[in-house]
Specification:
About 30% of the residues lie in helices and about 30% in strands.
Length: about 250
């Protein structure tokens, strides 16, 4: 059978030319094997190219995820630095010990799965509805009648709320405000709640906008139950009525 020959003719319909190819069995096997090898290599190349593209897409996704996590870490570091700076400022202002360890704080946040970056950090949620007995005032001469926040009268033990998402920087007793809560909201925003009957949150605790954080009281130097409420930005007190429209109404 190896001596048998196979003839292939290619005939043109427009001319009398004819191409003739003659192969013996061995050569025919070699030619077919060559074509099969070419086809196999073609499919293998396509398969390999697909795998390489798939691996590239997977690596690209992993890289984008890593980049996103890196940006989160950078933002976390920036927020922690701001917390550190403002913590020292607030504690110095209140006469509290400056025992602040950012590494320990970061570890505690990681363990508690507490987010450090905020979206809903603008202090615009009304902490409590009530009568504004004393307004914000920074224009007094010789600091007479100087008032860096609002006094909001409400019944004793009325729950009051966090004005924005944040983390509790201080929760304890401080003269002359009695039971006091200070919350850091990110982007250098702080809120201050004083004269509380009871604080319902603790330092380093994460709080949500509208969450109940304490009860209206008359602790410290006060003539009756009310909430002393302040908002600070970049170390400067801001009139809370700018953010909360109901406090702009004449009471």
């Amino acid at each position: 059978m190896a001596s048998e020959k196979f003839t292939f003719l290619i005939v043109s319909q427009k001319s009398e030319k004819t191409l003739k190819f003659q192969f013996n069995f061995r050569n025919l096997v070699i030619v077919f094997s060559f074509f099969i090898l070419i086809i196999f290599l073609g499919f293998f190349s396509i398969y390999r190219a697909y795998n390489i593209n798939f691996e590239y897409v997977s690596i690209k996704k992993d890289y984008e995820k890593m980049l996103s996590e890196r940006n989160k870490v950078i933002q976390m570091t920036r927020d922690l630095n701001r917390i550190n700076e403002m913590d020292i400022y607030v504690r110095n202002s209140l006469g509290i010990s400056n025992s602040f360890d950012s590494d320990t704080l970061l570890n505690s946040y990681v363990e508690q799965n507490i987010p450090v970056s905020y979206i809903k950090n603008i202090p615009s949620f009304s902490p409590v509805s009530g009568f504004v007995s004393q307004k914000f005032n920074l224009k007094s001469e010789h600091n007479i009648n100087l008032h860096t926040g609002l006094d909001i009268v409400a019944p004793l033990k009325t729950p009051f709320h966090s004005t924005a998402d944040g983390q509790v920087l201080f929760a304890g007793w401080k003269y002359p405000f009695g039971n006091t809560i200070i919350i850091y909201h990110g982007e250098d925003y702080f809120s201050f709640y004083g004269h509380n009957f009871e604080n319902l949150v603790f330092e380093k605790e994460s709080v949500k906008r509208g969450q109940i954080i304490g009860l209206i009281g008359n602790t410290g130097e006060t003539s009756g139950p009310h909430l002393h409420f302040e908002i600070w930005k970049n170390g400067i007190p801001i009139d809370p009525s700018i953010f909360i429209s109901e406090y702009r109404l004449e009471n």
